[in-house]
Automatic annotation (TrEMBL):
PANTHER family xrefs: CHITIN DEACETYLASE, GLYCOSYL TRANSFERASE-RELATED
GO molecular function, one term: chitin deacetylase activity
Keyword line: Signal
Region (Disordered): 378-463
Name this protein carries in UniProt: NodB homology domain-containing protein
GO biological process: carbohydrate metabolic process; fungal-type cell wall biogenesis
Stretches with biased composition (Polar residues): 380-390, 399-444
SUPFAM superfamilies reported for this sequence: Glycoside hydrolase/deacetylase (SSF88713)
Domain NodB homology: start-end pairs: 161-363
GO cellular component: a single term: membrane
Length: 490
């Protein structure tokens, strides 16, 4: 039989092919768009023009072969005079801080109350776990936000047997000239980590300490440790106004950018004090919250508020549980510090023992996160875990919506956004991400930013309404059926 296709038949065939192709693209788009429901964030635009000590931060990072025990190097090309007073609340009326405040979409910041402190400076706890509408960790240990566009706090390593080594409050400097005390300051801890397998850690730096001890910050970064934010002056963050929260985070971001050349995507609130208001501000400034699930209480050693025996018993118990095969649910993120000779001695005592029973790596290694900064990498050799089973972040599954595969002690019922008010400190017209930096001209924009939880892939198309993902499939099937009927019976 001789077949001859009319022009109308050819048109039908061409249209069917186009729709089928669009259907395939829409399937990919639907998959990409559904990877995360979190609010997309980009590289902080306010750091785009900060002068860094090197043209490329990678030039500061050493290869594993070149990392060795050594004294600190002198810093070069740094001008750090234009910063607030160290370890004091930074001002909010500075033009740089005001510029950041204008960039934030305040409609996405829950209107949680500003918490109160007692007369002696401690946090005044009022809410309970049963009455905690804003996921206030200090009150209820809540780490899974009550709003669905902010990711859950990271508090443990997904793979059992991993130990996410990290230290708060650095870089540690002794201001006394007493040589017995001076010997404990950096690079003592960093040299010790080199001596024990060049083990990596995640370091939560206080911005004030970065500015006053930049050579130690550069040394840690060059050794492959991951740098994260720990605020400028170490306050209870929920006791601050929105503007004060921005100021604490901004000056620390700027210090790290100017001293080390990178913009971290991670931070830890001092004392773990965080609620959804503070979480949202940090997320909108480009940082995800990291907490812990093993508290060593080592910070109390210097003040003698806890005994060395008690702290030592914590570590021995953790090791004993692992040895007895009673610690197989997930790995751990401890809370430790580089803030005194006592905390350094604690690491020197227990790190070798931990390495016998745990896979001791940085937090980012145990998460399989090779993109801890907004700047272009590659950072792989700084954050690669030798254990491939640790490469999946169970806190956020890229194939599951918020809440799935996320072990949590809290259960959110109903609409996460119900009855939650939002802050706007004067500008009610800001649109989500309307002023967030995009494009290759922004030096702080990472090529890997699309991998960050909460960022929708740029390949995502709007071909399909989310409520009707199969419309194109139905249309193309109907058209193809019509075409074949036309060919056979025409």
């Amino acid at each position: 039989m001789h077949w001859s296709l009319s022009s109308s038949t050819t048109l039908l065939l061409t249209t069917a092919a186009i729709i089928a192709s669009a259907n395939e693209e829409a399937d990919v788009s639907s998959s990409s768009s559904s990877t995360s429901s979190y609010l997309a964030v980009e590289s902080p635009v306010w750091l785009a023009n900060i002068k860094t000590p090197y043209d490329n931060a990678r030039s500061l990072a050493l290869s594993e072969e070149d990392i060795m025990v050594r004294p600190l190097d002198q810093v070069k090309n740094l001008h750090l005079s234009n910063y607030p007073s160290p370890l004091k609340a930074p001002p909010v009326d500075d033009p740089e801080v005001q510029a950041v405040i204008e960039q934030i979409d305040w409609s996405k910041v829950p209107k949680a109350p500003i918490r109160k402190a007692t007369v002696d400076g401690e946090l005044k706890i009022e809410e309970t776990k049963e009455n905690d509408p804003y996921c206030w960790w200090s009150s209820s240990l809540c780490s899974n936000p009550k709003v669905d566009y902010i990711p859950e706090d990271i508090s443990y390593c997904p793979q059992a047997g991993d130990w996410g080594l990290n230290y708060d409050d650095g870089p540690y400097r002794v201001w006394s000239e007493d040589e017995d005390e001076k010997q404990w300051e950096e690079p003592r801890l960093y040299n010790f980590l080199v001596e024990h397998g060049k083990v990596k850690s995640t370091l939560f730096y206080i911005g004030s300490n970065v500015v006053t001890f930049p050579e130690a910050a550069q040394r840690a970064f060059s050794d492959g440790h991951t740098i994260c934010s720990h605020t400028w002056s170490h306050p209870y963050m929920t006791t601050l106004t929105n503007e004060q929260v921005v100021s604490e985070l901004y000056w620390t971001q700027k210090a790290m950018k100017e001293v080390v050349g990178v913009t971290p995507k991670c931070w830890r609130p001092p004392y773990g004090d965080i609620d959804d208001r503070v979480r949202a501000i940090a997320w909108l400034m480009g940082m995800r919250t990291i907490l812990w699930d093993r508290d060593s209480n080592d910070w109390g050693l210097a003040a003698q508020s806890i005994s060395a025996d008690t702290v030592n018993n914590y570590f021995q118990d953790w090791i004993d549980q692992r040895v007895a095969n009673k610690d197989n649910d997930h790995g751990h993120i401890p809370l430790q510090h580089e803030s005194s000779n006592h905390t350094i001695m604690l690491t020197e005592k227990w790190l070798p023992e931990l390495q016998k029973h745990f896979n001791v790596v940085s937090i980012h290694q145990c998460l399989g996160d090779t993109s801890p900064y907004w700047e272009d990498g590659p950072w792989n050799n700084m954050n690669t875990n030798d254990n491939p089973a640790s490469s999946v972040d169970r806190h956020i599954s890229e194939n599951a919506p918020s809440g799935e595969n996320q072990p949590s002690t809290e259960q959110n019922s109903g609409d996460n956004n119900a009855n939650i008010e939002f802050n706007d400190p004067g500008n009610g017209n800001s649109l989500p991400n309307s002023r967030i930096a995009m494009g290759t001209n922004n030096k702080t924009l990472s090529k890997d930013h699309k991998k960050m939880p909460g960022t929708v892939s740029s390949n995502a198309s709007s071909l399909l309404p989310s409520s009707h993902p199969n419309l194109l499939l139905l249309d193309s099937t109907l058209l193809l059926s019509t075409f074949f009927a036309f060919v056979l019976f025409a």
